[in-house]
Write a structure and sequence with these properties.
This protein is α/β, with parallel strands linked by helices and 434 residues long. It has eleven helices and 15 strands. The radius of gyration is 23 Å and the shape is globular. Bound molecules: glyoxylic acid (GLV) and manganese (II) ion (2 copies).
Amino acid sequence: MSAAVQVPVASAPARAAADRIVTRCDELAAISETAGHITRVYLSPEHARANAVVDNWMQDAGLDTWQDAAGNLHGRTGRAGPDVPVLLLGSHLDTVVDAGRYDGVVGVLMAIEVAARLQQARAELPFALEVIAFSDEEGTRFGKALLGSSAVAGVWDDSWWDLRDGDGTTLRAAFESFGLDPAQVGQAAVDPASLVGYLEAHIEQGPYLEHAEQALGVVTSIASARRFTVRAVGEARHAGGTPYERRHDALLAAAEAALAVERICRTEQHIGTVGTMAVEPGAVNVVPGLATFAVDLRGEFDDGRDRVWDEIAEAFREIGARRGVDVTPTEVHRAPAVFCAPHLMDAVRAGIVSTGEPEPIELFSRAGHDAMSLGRVTDVAMLFLRNPDGISHHPDEFVSAADVALGLDALVGAIEHLARTSDTLPPATTAVEA
Ligand code: GLV
Ligand code: MN
Ligand code: MN
């Protein structure tokens, strides 16, 4: 007879907090620009409403709150004073189009509960805790991801002010309509010298934890990413009258280009996606003259990613030349791979093991996270929560309250581990990559 398998059970406070988190995820899901779907983008009325609701929850949890110059919401607790080091915790409140309800949101709500619990327990931490609900991680509105956390990391790039959303509104104009002053965006930046680091909890967005039958995992690094919009310019002509040899069909060039992205990425063991495509003039009886599409490319290392992009760009040139279509990519986003700090990974691992979970698996995150921006100026680590079926960026996205509860205990354990070892902490990383 085999011994009964012990399934770890979270503490009573964590279970109560996890139930509250799941209910709050449902409440935030109702803050959407479209009824019946979840779409909440940067600098929108829904962004303002979500910040207001979460601000109340932060205050109820005893945090001192403020909204920064880039629309991120902060809540702080613990030791006060200008020289007190700060451990940042957080994730994001914005969503993709027709999103699930847990991506980002669950990490923000977990950070609030953990800060509240440590405060209520009067834990003697050698650092303050600051929760940040980042305003733009997905890049849904302006095509450029991580705007909110880039402002906090102090790596804002003024060339972004001219980015436009689908309606032609610039990022600058959207800032002003939201009541923010573009000239003040630098005020959102934290001082890296004051930071202990950044910890983020997030659903996995893939199937590896489920496959390993583990509730929680330790992230080793976050994928290096590049994104492009591509214009394929051919010639619109009569669909009946134009012989094949006279056609310069923009859509067929774009379709071949999309297949090339898949073929090259599969062969090179990278991840490439064409997630949007639009055709003009868009009539059943006209050969398409213009196709615009977006490419999302990810890999574990920057040099591999760049080598694969060069191969894709060469394939685009070949397809364009053969079809007489001008295929021109423009880069809209580039983020280097971020490697989690070993001592923070140790803290996350210790936190997970303290819940009674087995030694956790380590995962490379194929999804992007706010930790990528923070990783440019301080040490970062991430705790992943099991995501049944690995489905995310989709309304069926799910995480169980039981796993959230274990994650809460693990995060508390990780912070306590950090506090115990903090006199041996290496200095926080301060180098910003070019
Ligand atoms: C964000 O979720 C991304 O990985 O694109
Ligand atoms: Mn996402
Ligand atoms: Mn996310």
